[in-house]
């Protein structure tokens, strides 16, 4: 069983919610990656989403765009990140999921990438520019290698489409909470809770909400309607400003609700 | 192959190229667009409405002009100019903008977003929006805003909001990124009028079809004048819309050479060019698999051309396919060669071509002398050069002579 499946099985058994932080590999230099990952694991992250920088990230807002630019300026490459992950993997127990765009993978060679990612201990892949219509190019090879494709559903996806997508993977479903790009939001659409519950209804795998989530209050709200959250831009900002206690607080906010229940 | 040319396939692929590599949020919008486009194609009243606008508003058909002085100068094949520069707004871009604006209306979307490089597509889209009473927002790289100030002012006069883009190279590629981000955020009431034969399916097909009026007219006009088909058609390529519009009606006519001319900038042996087909490799950008200028790690490289409209590091998926299949040929022309061709066309024919189109003129001047005198070639003169006069003046140090 893949690490992603395992960790969600154990969350379910313990009636806990997931918290998946996002960091940009190479932001602040690749040498800081190990320390960020171990910090997040210790703070209680369920899994970690690791961004691989791309020059033209159309699904990302300003914070992640800037982090990507910093990472590229620091000379970060996919090959370099894979080597670093292989080095860190023995001391990290939670799933590590890459988030990137198709082009860096194609330049690497999709077959080569999957094989090297599998050897390095990468557990999943999130590809925001790969809708279900195009996934044949990578999904079968990835899944054979035990790497989960984490698929996205959005507010504009019709229910049958959500259902079709939700029945594909064994990892979790990434429910995008806004029409738009990544980056902190103050508030969400009122119907979001209902939308998330509909998604959960048709999904055979856990549903995590992501995009725009930046406050402990958001985390608690989302967790009432789904199985956990993904937080990106805010985590990047807090690492930038060195406010590590606030990261711990955010992650902890996903645990509190459970104690009450 | 060509007799059965029916691309793209139902998934929007041209061989390995094309496709729909877009965020899930946009999938519904592009599926809806595809559906609506199919209906519009079969709808006589839509076709009539577009045809009427192309005739009475754009001023089609545009002339196919025998450039006798240029022909004598080149000393070979007869050289014809397809005068897209005479369209309303001064370039071929209006053919597509009007078509897509009508599609937006059919879908009940009254807000339009578009990207622009040289500003020609922005002006054409702002024009269509003014005419049809649509809200219009245009993303344009800051570098292009600097190069094309007059077009920015034109768009604003026409009621569009122009938003500068500072990221990356601050040119067309970055304007597309920002337009896509805007569309993802406002997809429910906004249509994206993509200006070239690129982006996710169905855009490359829709833009090609709306631009095919260029090749269809050329074919008919050339037959009327010469009683046969031309031996070659030559057009410049940034994303590839005027060339695709010229080529498509000739794809099955295998005797007609189709030559696309990319921008070689300072030279294809430097890193300052925009020759994606000549020097690039396949990859995914802006929703499609196509030839791209990229480094070994798949990071997109900045393109360079004196002409803002060719300054793009990719090229439409159908061109990528036509290159690999060998049906079309792709060449490149440097900044200096394009400038010389611009000056030459001014002096010989009294026509100031756009810097983009000057690339096609420059290559035609190399090709014509290699052809026989009873053969003929058609240059797609995709736009007029008024917008470039400032750039050219600066480059020539103010000397018009």
TrEMBL record, chain A:
<keyword id="KW-0057">Aromatic amino acid biosynthesis</keyword>
<comment type="function">
    <text>The alpha subunit is responsible for the aldol cleavage of indoleglycerol phosphate to indole and glyceraldehyde 3-phosphate.</text>
</comment>
<comment type="subunit">
    <text>Tetramer of two alpha and two beta chains.</text>
</comment>
<keyword id="KW-0456">Lyase</keyword>
<dbReference type="InterPro" id="IPR002028">
    <property type="entry name" value="Trp_synthase_suA"/>
</dbReference>
<dbReference type="GO" id="GO:0004834">
    <property type="term" value="F:tryptophan synthase activity"/>
</dbReference>
<comment type="similarity">
    <text>Belongs to the TrpA family.</text>
</comment>
<feature type="active site" description="Proton acceptor">
    <location>
        <position position="60"/>
    </location>
</feature>
<keyword id="KW-0822">Tryptophan biosynthesis</keyword>
<dbReference type="Pfam" id="PF00290">
    <property type="entry name" value="Trp_syntA"/>
</dbReference>
<feature type="active site" description="Proton acceptor">
    <location>
        <position position="49"/>
    </location>
</feature>
<dbReference type="InterPro" id="IPR011060">
    <property type="entry name" value="RibuloseP-bd_barrel"/>
</dbReference>
<dbReference type="InterPro" id="IPR018204">
    <property type="entry name" value="Trp_synthase_alpha_AS"/>
</dbReference>
<comment type="pathway">
    <text>Amino-acid biosynthesis; L-tryptophan biosynthesis; L-tryptophan from chorismate: step 5/5.</text>
</comment>
<keyword id="KW-0028">Amino-acid biosynthesis</keyword>
<dbReference type="InterPro" id="IPR013785">
    <property type="entry name" value="Aldolase_TIM"/>
</dbReference>
<dbReference type="GO" id="GO:0005829">
    <property type="term" value="C:cytosol"/>
</dbReference>
<protein>
    <recommendedName>
        <fullName>Tryptophan synthase alpha chain</fullName>
        <ecNumber>4.2.1.20</ecNumber>
    </recommendedName>
</protein>
TrEMBL record, chain B:
<feature type="modified residue" description="N6-(pyridoxal phosphate)lysine">
    <location>
        <position position="93"/>
    </location>
</feature>
<protein>
    <recommendedName>
        <fullName>Tryptophan synthase beta chain</fullName>
        <ecNumber>4.2.1.20</ecNumber>
    </recommendedName>
</protein>
<dbReference type="InterPro" id="IPR006653">
    <property type="entry name" value="Trp_synth_b_CS"/>
</dbReference>
<dbReference type="InterPro" id="IPR036052">
    <property type="entry name" value="TrpB-like_PALP_sf"/>
</dbReference>
<dbReference type="GO" id="GO:0005737">
    <property type="term" value="C:cytoplasm"/>
</dbReference>
<dbReference type="InterPro" id="IPR001926">
    <property type="entry name" value="TrpB-like_PALP"/>
</dbReference>
<keyword id="KW-0057">Aromatic amino acid biosynthesis</keyword>
<comment type="subunit">
    <text>Tetramer of two alpha and two beta chains.</text>
</comment>
<keyword id="KW-0663">Pyridoxal phosphate</keyword>
<dbReference type="Pfam" id="PF00291">
    <property type="entry name" value="PALP"/>
</dbReference>
<comment type="pathway">
    <text>Amino-acid biosynthesis; L-tryptophan biosynthesis; L-tryptophan from chorismate: step 5/5.</text>
</comment>
<dbReference type="GO" id="GO:0004834">
    <property type="term" value="F:tryptophan synthase activity"/>
</dbReference>
<comment type="similarity">
    <text>Belongs to the TrpB family.</text>
</comment>
<keyword id="KW-0028">Amino-acid biosynthesis</keyword>
<keyword id="KW-0822">Tryptophan biosynthesis</keyword>
<keyword id="KW-0456">Lyase</keyword>
<dbReference type="InterPro" id="IPR023026">
    <property type="entry name" value="Trp_synth_beta/beta-like"/>
</dbReference>
<feature type="domain" description="Tryptophan synthase beta chain-like PALP">
    <location>
        <begin position="59"/>
        <end position="383"/>
    </location>
</feature>
<comment type="function">
    <text>The beta subunit is responsible for the synthesis of L-tryptophan from indole and L-serine.</text>
</comment>
<dbReference type="InterPro" id="IPR006654">
    <property type="entry name" value="Trp_synth_beta"/>
</dbReference>
